[in-house]
Amino acid sequence: MCLVFEPLGKSLFDFIKENKYKGFELKQVREIAQQSLKAIEFLHSLRLTHTDLKPENILLKRDEKTTLTDEKNFPIVSKITLFSF
Prior knowledge:
Blueprint lengths: L7 E4 H7 L7 H20 L12 E4 L18 E3 L3
Antiparallel strand pairs: 1-2, 2-3
């Protein structure tokens, strides 16, 4: 069996840790929450349950824009992928 994934960025936890535990802007939290709920809803439609939902399993999508901003050290893009096995 071979599992293939798109190139992904850092997990939310790793990003926050490297950013000296500063959080995200409210707009980004809202976007991340909406995307997470949409992913969970999709899993639910397949009659699956994600049993290990935590910041380490929410990965930022890798993009040339997924970098820190100059002023506040927030990621520019807050698109995510929910990781599970």
